[in-house]
Amino acid sequence: MVVTMRQVAQHAGVSLKTVSNVVNHYEHVSASMRSRVLTAIDDLGYQMNVTARNLSTGRTGMLALALPELQLPYFAELADAVMDAADDLGYTVLIEPTAGMRTGELEVLRSPRRSMSDGLIYSPTALREADRAALSVDFPMVLLGERALASSVDHVAMANEVGGRMVTEHLLAQGCRRIAIVGAHDAETGAGSLRQRGARSALEAAGLDSDVASAGAQRWSRETGRAAVMDLLAREVRFDGLLALNDAMALGAMRALWEAGVDVPGQVRVAGFDDIEESRYARPSLTTVNPGRAEIARRAVQLLVDRIEGRAVEAAEYQVPAALVVRESTR
Amino acid sequence: MVVTMRQVAQHAGVSLKTVSNVVNHYEHVSASMRSRVLTAIDDLGYQMNVTARNLSTGRTGMLALALPELQLPYFAELADAVMDAADDLGYTVLIEPTAGMRTGELEVLRSPRRSMSDGLIYSPTALREADRAALSVDFPMVLLGERALASSVDHVAMANEVGGRMVTEHLLAQGCRRIAIVGAHDAETGAGSLRQRGARSALEAAGLDSDVASAGAQRWSRETGRAAVMDLLAREVRFDGLLALNDAMALGAMRALWEAGVDVPGQVRVAGFDDIEESRYARPSLTTVNPGRAEIARRAVQLLVDRIEGRAVEAAEYQVPAALVVRESTR
DNA sequence: GTGAAAGCGCTAACAG
DNA sequence: CTGTTAGCGCTTTCAC
Description:
2 copies of one chain form a homodimer.
Chain A: H1 5-12, H2 16-23, H3 31-44, H4 50-57, E1 62-67, H5 73-88, E2 92-97, H6 102-110, E3 119-122, E4 141-144, E5 154-158, H7 160-173, E6 179-184, H8 191-205, E7 214-216, H9 222-234, E8 241-244, H10 247-259, E9 269-271, H11 277-281, E10 288-290, H12 293-308, E11 317-320, E12 323-325
Parallel strand pairs in A: 1-2, 1-3, 3-4, 4-5, 5-11, 6-7, 6-8, 8-9
Antiparallel strand pairs in A: 10-12
Helix pairs in contact in A: 1-2, 1-3, 2-3, 5-12, 7-8, 9-10
The structure holds a DNA duplex.
Domain HTH lacI-type (chains A, B): 3-57
Protein name (chains A, B): DNA-binding transcriptional regulator, LacI/PurR family
Keywords (chains A, B): DNA-binding, Transcription, Transcription regulation
């Protein structure tokens, strides 16, 4: 039999409300009342039923975080950062995996489970232009990504385009002249296209061919990076630089280059994007762009909580600055 | 204003109960009733309030999963596997990070948030002998790990000891004679000590020194692996084989060896434990033990759900078999 | 400062 | 097969 607040009240000889006040750290409770209640709680081993409180308050204290999958290291690290940030503000994170698929991403917006969280941090990767309408939701949400898709929603964007340009300029400065890009997919929007656009602009500014070769990939994993390089090699594409649109692919690419006997950075310099921890330990360690993950997480959570708690005014947009991290793979 | 079931009922001209029946796919509802209700739901844009249902049923449909942090790749992959398994049975996973600390691990058992999930999958790493009592809980729980700590709770264990022995025997078979072990901590229980015990038994069986050198580590990360090897090297310990008690440390160790100009597997063969995805892409790819993560996740979820739904009888224990995965780092 | 009563939105007997 | 009636355990006016 589970102990309820009412029983605690009885045991302590006070009213229900008093127990509630104590439990919720309400200011004006006499010390004696408080300690009486506390003792009763202890005696009975009372534990608050959070679900009941949720129903009563209309809040759950949970933030949903929608992302493709934790197996992709970037998202695991992001999730960790979001959990930390949420915890600081007294919220818990509920991770909603979308498998990086459009259906999964739309599902998150509509599932009844949505009502179990007070708001949503949403990082869509597969949504299309046609899904724009789905983003007009009536609950607190902040989008991780560009303003492109929905304009009237809070956004926290990373510097994809600038980052893409920076890292490409670095490759150029290191002497690369034929840079292959790995991970492009034909989405007209999203991180991929922006990073790519940044890269192209750097190449064009240097008067170089901005389309040496690109290998696409839907899922940005080590495996797709590896496959992309094997494809480039099979097609005998020549390149002296390789920009993978995220670190996981870059790591897979380096593996494939090594298997093929291509020296990095000797014959090909390789760079990625995301600055996941793994990149620091790779052989060679990977040059990449640090998108400011912790800052993104903090901003997103703060924005969402402001909205939930009614402090937000109009749709905000933050752009978190990126930083180039030069390591062995491009030296 | 949010739409409730009552309003749907009114709009459809039926009773509350009928709407509930339809929404919950209750068998015996006439087709006409059903479609009337469905139309009303559609008209009004009704969305079930899951919290209210939770309070009413006493269930939340959520399973809590306590683990150190998602930044450690093994746990990210485990979380993914648990989420998949839970999803198959109609449950959602709520991840509870413990930071790998005793206080965090105890907190999970006591926090009021506990009542937001129907059960707990618990993978303690820092609990001590003295905490045994804390594991006598009155809610459904399955422990990931050995029976050592609590005997009357459902367990799903991986083959730590056997795995440790297998991988060590492999190192020996490859000619290693002085094997250093990385990651030992002095816990008398837990995965580390078991893997180590397996390793020692293999060494002793071969008549070799089972205590060449070991470097401890509390947090089993790439960084601690790297630091451990730097320490061994600084102490000029000689070894021709290195067993890290998990892959992350092995990867960090390989990085340190490379930095020190030690060839793997030429001068030192390296092996890990966990078979995380990253190990397949490392240079050289890492020999390791596959503990059957997916199977562990499936079993744990199944066991927990059985208990939650009242199908479980007495405390069960599963031991999932491990498999040696030989790769370049020991060839 | 503390108590009584009315819900929060849904489920589940139990009738009908 | 459908409707009525109580709760689930907590919060929250609003009196006292």
